[in-house]
Amino acid sequence: MTALVINDLNVWFGLVHDRVAAVKGACFSVEQGESFGLVGESGSGKSTILRALTGLVPQWSGTIEVEGEALSGAKRDRRFFRTVQMVFQDPYASLHPRHTVDQVLSETLHLHGLNNIDKRVTELLNDVGLGQRFRFRYPHQLSGGQRQRVAIARALAGEPDILLLDEPTSALDVSVQAEVLNLLTDLRTLRRLTFLMVSHDLPVIGHMCERLAVMRNGEIVEVMSSETLRLGNPSHEYSKQLLSASVAPNQ
Amino acid sequence: MNLLDIEDLWVRFPTRQGVFDAVRGVSFSLGRERLGIVGESGSGKSMTGRAILRLIRKPGIVEANYINLEGRDLLRLTEREMREVRGQQISMVMQDPKFSLNPVVTVGEQLMEAYLQHNSSPKARAQKMATEMLENVSIRDPERVMRAYPHEVSGGMGQRIMIAMMLIPNPKILIADEPTSALDVSVQRQVLNIMDGLVKERGMGLIFISHDLNLVSEFCDRVLIMYAGRIVEVCKADKLHQARHPYTQGLLNSLPRLDEKCTHLSVLTRDPSWSEAPSVRG
User: Fold this and answer.
1) Contact B185 A41 (CB under 8 A)
2) How many Å lie between the alpha carbon of A213 and the closest alpha carbon of chain B?
3) pTM
4) Which of A89, A111, A178, B67 would be B74's cystine partner, CB 3.0–4.6 Å?
């Protein structure tokens, strides 16, 4: 089954002469259990696609289907959020500074209408490799990597099928990035998740995803498998440029 | 002669739990070269950069045998003399242009201020200098950018404006603290090439602080690797991939690679003895 189908998606901001087209005619689909990557420079519209999906942009046209159901407008029902969840780039900004980890997770669980909250919080923390001693800490008492783990736990609270990852590791150190990426890989196999991952880091996308789309100025210029990327023969000129800019000469 | 000599630099922060040592006895010298400092967050690399300019705020304590800028000990200068050094002799480019540009003043005015601070000359001349400098950092249409506010320019452009601002007084040393980590890969190259060109052209010394090992190995001449406030290894930048210290190797191995497929990345296992070994001279 196809988890996500995006067809001729257009997103724009502003009116009439101020109108900026952020995404132009994007088409791609993600199979159930697949990991799909979006790469491109900032302003290329990769995050905007995720925001359109989750209803964070007011105006868009085209079709977005999640597990066979078409979405419309910017309103999403409760069932949508049990299916799709998002992890944001900046773990410093996406957690409430005056809520403990426990409050963050229990509130999320409560909003999803789940019972057995206490037990579920324990499980979530174990799943993301944090353990119980982090349960009553505030975000400022956690390191960047630990905060991102809390953000992942929060996204997993509603037991979603699809996880949208918006640059989940770009604010982290390389050593911590490796830990978080490994955690995501494990969670994906454990919970049979579908990933849609946005990053400007080609090696990270190449490592995490089976297929990827290269974006530029709001358009998808190429969809390829990460195998193609690894062998170093993308067909579009821009993908080649991007690839040569991210491969270190010593590799 | 070396531009900068640092001997036994310590940065301390007294806390309720006792004194925390952010930098612990670091010594190195800088010639007319590009020196990279790499390490994870919390390894003390940014603190080293800030300590050189005496930008560590109270209650932080900076101690060193000496920090010599062409033979003059920066630690013995008064705050007034230090203000002359900052900008004119040593300047610093910070990580995020969003936070280092004044949001309510136009780019042009900020650039001109950087010039007028150190030179008493007519405003028209400052304006000309500022426009020229923007051209130097490959900004097309500098006239328009001069009139723009910081929120109207992109991140890459903002960082280039910061570099232009730092270069206006023509400093001897440029300290760049993660100048490109907020930027895209493609823009990153552009900004680095501009910095590289300017450093070579003017014979400046550059201290390049970054957590990106590949970038540093490509861009710098020499690299100091810092761990827990100490330098654990010094090597030639192009030989970084043959580094011997387990910490450096661990960092290199934890990077995802495009040419090899693996399901799990190797994770750094820390050895407590790394932080106890004496600091290496750089």
Assistant:
1) yes
2) 16
3) 0.82
4) B67
